[in-house]
């Protein structure tokens, strides 16, 4: 499974196609994305409820976070793979339902491949973070969080310690910031392309992991160029949306706090739905161009998807 090299404009073309992902079957695709978001919200609410039940105990919070991480590792990769399969079916004009997003949990549907592929990339991310903590930038964050943890709940952090931390941190720590940002972007691109491979090709876990890495290595500059543009443009767009939505919700909250909340939650859901659609659409079209379309998915029966 050898990835193709693409031009600098290719990622922008994929992003353009991502704006049109729901044209052929919007009910199935956006329904599937809504189901995934519902699961994400449910897991988050359960985690917050369990953390509140611990009464602020450090050990209890750590256990809840560990359990939540394991649950996310087991649940989210098959769901993401299901989104890629629903998207692939809609793009090819095949019959598909929104609930097919859960098909990867069935036996023989490649759910274990998706989970293990995601797990490998999670471990690679943790390994990178561990290495980063050995640098001067990592030392800064270690000492900063030590100061934060020593701060009483509701209290102010030790200002003298913060000033001393900034003064004692070498200037070279700043140089690690772009390195970390580029590495995280590369990891994100590789992991999503690997998940797309695991969802749409009957490959082994090792092949899926390597496919994502090779795809990013062969197309590093085009993906980096897009990442820089999206980072700057996304920041400006997020700032603008934050100002507008904050103003609208703030004015509504003056009339009634409940009214502001009733407007804020649906808006947040719509924004996240749009972001998920763009993200999966981008990586799906990128995957098809990078890995070619020589192995299309098997035709699916109504209400079913091929593994």
UniProtKB/TrEMBL annotation:
Alphabetical keyword list: Membrane, Transmembrane, Transmembrane helix
Ranges annotated as spanning the membrane: 61-84, 114-134, 175-196, 208-229, 235-255, 262-284
Protein name: Uncharacterized protein
Native source organism of the sequence: Arenimonas caeni
């Amino acid at each position: 499974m050898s990835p193709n090299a693409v031009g600098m404009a290719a990622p922008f073309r994929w992003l353009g196609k991502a704006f049109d992902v729901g044209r052929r079957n919007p009910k199935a695709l956006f329904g599937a994305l809504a189901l995934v978001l519902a699961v994400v919200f449910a897991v988050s609410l359960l985690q917050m409820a369990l953390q509140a039940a611990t009464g602020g105990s450090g050990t209890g919070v750590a256990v809840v976070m560990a359990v939540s991480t394991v649950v996310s590792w087991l649940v989210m990769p098959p769901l993401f793979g299901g989104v890629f399969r629903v998207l692939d079916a809609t793009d090819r004009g095949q019959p598909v339902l929104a609930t097919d997003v859960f098909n990867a949990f069935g036996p023989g549907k490649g759910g274990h491949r998706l989970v293990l592929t995601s797990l490998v990339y999670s471990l690679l991310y943790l390994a990178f973070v561990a290495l980063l903590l050995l640098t001067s930038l990592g030392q800064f964050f270690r000492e900063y969080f030590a100061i934060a943890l020593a701060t009483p709940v509701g209290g102010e952090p030790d200002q003298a310690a913060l000033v001393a931390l900034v003064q004692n941190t070498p200037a070279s720590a700043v140089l690690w910031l772009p390195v970390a940002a580029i590495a995280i972007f590369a990891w994100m691109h590789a992991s999503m392309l690997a998940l797309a491979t695991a969802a749409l090709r009957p490959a082994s876990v090792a092949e899926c992991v390597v496919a994502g890495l090779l795809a990013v290595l062969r197309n590093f500059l085009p993906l980096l160029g897009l990442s820089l543009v999206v980072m700057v443009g996304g920041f400006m767009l997020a700032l603008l949306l934050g100002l507008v939505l904050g103003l609208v919700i703030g004015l509504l909250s003056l009339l009634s706090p409940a009214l502001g909340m009733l407007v804020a939650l649906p808006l947040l859901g719509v924004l996240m739905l749009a972001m998920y659609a763009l993200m999966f659409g981008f990586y799906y079209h990128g995957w098809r161009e990078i890995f070619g379309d020589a192995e299309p998915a098997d035709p699916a029966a109504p209400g079913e998807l091929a593994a």
